[in-house]
Structure to design on (414 residues):
């Protein structure tokens, strides 16, 4: 499957925190570089997410803001 | 300034493409790891973005989807 | 590949309009039901989108608002 | 009221799950076609959402990604 | 029509800039307070947007980030 | 720090509601004008948000929809 989503980061699940509706997933996509994702708890279960699992983080280009010092 | 935005990636501008309203900015945030951002052309000008400039890419956690093979 | 994205609609490309940076893609996901997507022009080219092609529209649950009359 | 939002789907509420801050709403917009929405719990209450209620799902075109097999 | 969208700002169109696919709309929602919106050009036409017109700006709560000095 | 984000509203925190994963923050950005934001609970803690604190609400232009009566 190919996606229009411009940004795809391969990573490993480091931490999962479950709420009532949502789940917060922390991935490591490079040594010392982490990405945090909020998805629904049912999606986390459907994807069988667990610490150590290899996953991809997907981000649309329009959802990336830029800052300068 | 501190941001609620969970994901902040320090990087360098590699490429800028300008449209009539939007601009597509490509950053390198680690060797071989690129992030593409679409912002308005007027923002790109206001931030004086240019190839080689050091910037930050900002992504809200709710804008990060996850995929598994 | 399985996605955390909750909403996946199978459809057919009906129309493609290209801008300088973005492309507007119209899909039909059911008889008389259309979905409009804005992606980058380079994504439209990378996916080889063309009228009549079978594709999927993906929407995160947090991006769906609800209205009542 | 007319909206800039390009995608409007008329549907019926099938299921509501409440969290502490958010609510997950499942709509049926065509036979066998469901849309899942996450809104705040206070919005779900303000709109008096309930199973069987007729509602609209609204999605901005920039929030629709596209995938191909 | 009532919306789940938590943030609704009444305002007046101050400026419209048209691109090939998108349009950038600037509203004034209070004396000296402006909101900029990017919508598709076809939406701007469908809503008959013009300088001086009274409109509403709608923003989902999950799309509002927070910063502190 | 300068941001590509087009919309920045200075305001004061009026109310904070905490869920398991998310927090709902209500700001007043002008007399009688409120903005509601959903951020992660850990971001609310990291920014030391509290009632009365001065903060900024940030919204990308592509996340602003427009409605007309």
């Amino acid at each position: 499957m190919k996606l229009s989503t411009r940004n795809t980061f391969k990573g490993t699940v480091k931490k999962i925190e479950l709420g009532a509706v949502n789940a917060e997933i922390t991935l490591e996509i490079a040594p010392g570089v982490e990405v945090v994702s909020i998805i629904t708890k049912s999606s986390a279960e459907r994807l069988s997410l667990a610490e150590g699992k290899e996953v991809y983080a997907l981000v649309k280009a329009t959802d990336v803001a830029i800052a300068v010092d």
